[in-house]
Write a structure and sequence with these properties.
Largest sheet: none
Distance between the termini: 68 Å
Number of strands: 0
Helix content: 40-55%
Number of helices: 3
Strand content: under 5%
Mean pLDDT: 77
Low-confidence stretches: none
Length: 77
């Protein structure tokens, strides 16, 4: 009886400790290669109509517009 209780307790402790581990997180970029500027390449299915590939100014305008759309103060005015 004591052995089965000990095994159950050990299994519960092991399961709890397994939940505390963290998977390694790596930054991957699916669009442009890391040696290329972000405005130089993109999947055409995910581009905005006002953004032209290779144009840094239009890329920056789109990034600014997207960030303003996430601003609750600006959205609710």
């Amino acid at each position: 009886m004591k052995r089965s209780v000990s095994l159950i307790f050990a299994a519960v402790v092991f399961a709890m400790l397994a939940g505390c581990s963290q998977k390694p997180q790596t930054l991957t970029q699916a669009g442009a290669p890391p040696s290329q500027a972000p405005w130089m390449g993109a999947n055409p299915a995910f581009t905005e109509k006002d953004w032209k590939v290779g144009d840094k100014a239009s890329w920056q305008r789109e990034i600014d517009r997207r960030s303003q759309n996430q601003n609750e103060y600006v959205r609710m005015r």
